[in-house]
Write a structure and sequence with these properties.
Helix content: 25-40%
CATH topology of the largest domain: D-amino Acid Aminotransferase, Chain A, domain 1
Order of helices and strands: EEEEEHHEEEHEEEEHHEEEHH
CATH architecture of the largest domain: 2-Layer Sandwich
Number of domains: 2
Largest sheet: 7 strands, antiparallel
CATH class of the largest domain: Alpha Beta
Number of helices: 7
Shape: globular
Structural class: alpha+beta
Distance between the termini: 17 Å
């Protein structure tokens, strides 16, 4: 029997400043509290039921990758897993366990920093039409899921509602400034390359991923979640074969199910059946186990 998913969280006496598709953000004064719920979204709609323990996977994997990427770039974490909670949060310790993170108050950049190492999703669609991904020319003859000659940086706008929109590097530079855009590109490619090489040894292909950066004064730091099944495409390395879509450890499984039902991709979204919930949970937990070498 699956645990009940945590779909909403309120902390009486602690001000909630934002509710995202998955995360709730609370103001702790000189810091923020991020809480990852078990909500899952697809096609920009939040499903009415969630995936139990998904929020724990997202939070603990982010901690794992923050540890591994700190030699490349600083991040927004103020507390590590297992650190005691501030006194005002102690009454909520059971709810917060494993799914919360206390972070710095950075100023988020207005772009998403996407790195693609393989040809999939919107990149594959664009390549089929014009041989490019986000305007970057690629060699001819690539197939769906082909590994790219080298990873590419393909930024996107941030959308509060609806789809993030792919943009080219010059537009990203216009939004955040050339110097910051170049730094984002350099850091994103370095973090992705480190994670790709590490994950491949563990049996996972990171096909693409999305990073977020913020400013603390003049310093650029890594924020939000990092290299999770929600922000990345994770494929099993075993059985990988270009020329088709790949099985995945991420929420592509839920998207694939939703493509089979009679739904126009506008709210309200349909409830996920128990078998889809169970299989999705298994995929998230397996991704965590493979990458970290231990069960959650």
């Amino acid at each position: 029997m699956l645990n009940e998913p945590l779909l909403k969280i309120d902390l009486p006496g602690i001000a909630k400043v934002r509710t995202g598709k998955v995360r709730e953000i609370f103001d702790l004064g000189d810091s923020l509290l991020f809480v990852a719920t078990d909500r899952i979204s697809a096609f920009d709609c939040v499903m009415p039921n969630g995936i139990p323990r998904k929020g724990e996977v997202l939070t603990q994997l982010s901690h794992f990758w923050f540890d591994r990427s700190e030699s490349i770039v600083s991040n927004h974490r103020l507390a590590a897993p297992g650190d005691p909670l501030p006194k005002e949060l102690e009454p909520f310790s059971a709810k917060l366990a494993g799914r919360s993170m206390i972070v710095k108050k950075a100023k988020p950049l207005a772009i998403e920093c996407v790195v693609r190492g393989y040809l999939a999703g919107s990149g594959w669609k664009e390549y089929q039409k014009q041989g490019t991904v986000c305007g970057i020319p690629l060699p001819s003859g690539l197939q769906e899921s082909s590994e790219l000659p080298e990873p590419i940086f393909t930024p996107a706008t941030k959308a509060e509602t609806g789809h993030d929109m792919n943009i080219d590097f010059s537009e990203a530079s216009t939004i955040v400034g050339t110097k910051i855009a170049e730094k984002c590109r350099e850091l994103s490619l370095r973090i992705y390359s480190m994670a790709r090489d590490f994950a491949r040894q563990k049996g996972i292909i990171i096909a693409d991923t999305k990073f977020e950066f913020g400013l603390m004064g003049e310093d650029l730091i890594l924020i939000d979640e990092v290299l999770t099944p929600d922000s990345s495409r994770f494929w099993p390395a075993e059985g990988y074969q270009p020329g088709r879509g790949q099985p995945s450890y991420d929420k592509q499984f839920v998207r694939d199910y939703l493509e089979t039902v009679d739904w126009d991709k506008s709210p309200p979204a349909p409830a996920l059946p128990p078998d889809v919930v169970a299989k999705s949970q298994a995929k998230y937990l397996e991704a965590f186990r493979l990458l970290t070498g231990k069960p959650l």
